[in-house]
Specification:
about 140 residues; disordered C terminus; alpha+beta; about 25% helix; single chain; 7-stranded mixed sheet
């Protein structure tokens, strides 16, 4: 089941990268948790698709353009998958781009993403999932 979960999260992130909306691959009671992301000034949990979209609007508000790249996805055993992600954004009214690399531990249950725990570093997500910086198989999703 673990490789299936890795593939599932990779597909979900690919779809999100195109639509910028939660997909049918997330549970209706999905939780996006920011309590392990240092400095996030707003709510620490967003519930359901509507909650996630409220978060996403706040997250991307400063940008004219915003993109998300998947660096790597790792199996963390059981129901957990770790994604190493990078966002790029062009700040509103500016010519320059800024980047942020962060990690997310996804919990996949019964074929749906139930929870996404966001960390301000990919290393923090790996450590929280018990992987340190090594271990578990990984997959780099195709473009």
């Amino acid at each position: 089941m673990s490789q299936e979960n890795v593939d599932f999260v990779a597909d979900s992130l690919r779809r999100f990268g195109v639509t910028k909306k939660p997909t049918g691959l997330t549970a209706p009671d999905f939780v996006w948790a920011m309590d392990t992301f240092a400095g996030w000034p707003d709510e620490l949990e967003y519930r359901g698709w509507e909650g996630f979209m409220a978060f996403f609007a706040k997250w991307t508000e400063p940008y004219d353009q915003w993109d998300l790249d998947v660096i790597e996805i790792r199996d963390a055993g059981g129901d957990h998958v770790v994604a190493d992600l990078r966002q790029r954004g062009r700040l509103r009214g500016a010519d320059s781009w800024v980047e942020l690399r962060f990690g997310v531990v996804y919990t996949v249950v019964d074929g749906l993403v139930r929870r996404a725990q966001v960390y301000d570093t990919s290393g923090g997500a790996l450590e929280a999932a018990g992987l340190g910086t090594q271990g578990a198989s990984s997959q780099e999703p195709a473009g």
